[in-house]
Amino acid sequence: MAVTPSPADLELRKAFAEMQIKKIDCSKKIRVLDIQIDTLKKSKQRLVITENEVKNLPSETNVYASIGRMFALSTLPEISTDLTTKQTKIDSMIVQCDNNKSYLLKSLKEQEDNLRELVQQKKRDADAVPK
Questions:
Q1: Distance CA 15, CA 20 (A)
Q2: Whole-number Å distance between alpha carbons of 118 and 116
Q3: Would you say residue 128 has pLDDT above 80?
C-alpha cells in the first residue's frame, strides 16, 4: 500500500531543497569574499609599510615607481600620493566586499525565515483540518 505524499509535503521538500542549494551557494560566495577581504587587507598593510619607509627617506633620494614590468624615476611626493590613492581604493573595495557579504547573510536569513514561516503555516493548516 503506497502512500502518496501530500502536496504540502512536496512543497516543503521543494522549499528545503531550494534553501539548501541557496545556502551552499551563499556559503561559497561568503568564503570567496572573506578571502578577497583578507587579500585586500594584506595589500593595504604592505602599502602602509611602504609609505612609512618612503616617508623616512631623505628628500634627495631617487625613487622609482612601478609601472607594469618597468620602473620610472619619480619623486617622493608622487610616490607617497600614489600609495595613499591605492590605500583609498583598497579601503573602498573592502567596504564593498563587506556590503556584499552582509547582503548575502541577510538574504540567507530571510530565506530561512520564509521557510520557517512556511513550515508553521503547514502545521497550522494540518492542525486545522478535522480528522
A1: 9
A2: 5
A3: no
Structure confidence at residue 101 as a pLDDT band (50, 70, 90): very high
Please state, in angstroms and rounded to a whole number, the distance separating the CA atoms of residues 77 and 58.
12
Cross-strand pairs, 27: none
Which triple of cell numbers denotes residue 87?
A: 590605500
In the block, cell 541577510 appears at 106
The CA distance from 28 to 57, in Å, is: 44
Q: Report the pLDDT value the prediction gives residue 8, as an integer from 0 to 100.
A: 65
**Cell 503547514 sits on residue:** 122
pLDDT tens-digit map of 33-47: 999 999 999 999 999
Collapse the DSSP code of 102 into the 3-class scheme (helix H, G, I; strand E, B; otherwise coil) and give the result: helix
52 or 2, which is more confident? 52
Report in angstroms the alpha-carbon separations of 33 from 51, 96, 97, 104: 27, 10, 6, 10
Q: Are 117 and 15 in contact (CB under 8 A)?
A: no
What angle do the packed helices 7-55 and 76-128 form, to 10 degrees?
160
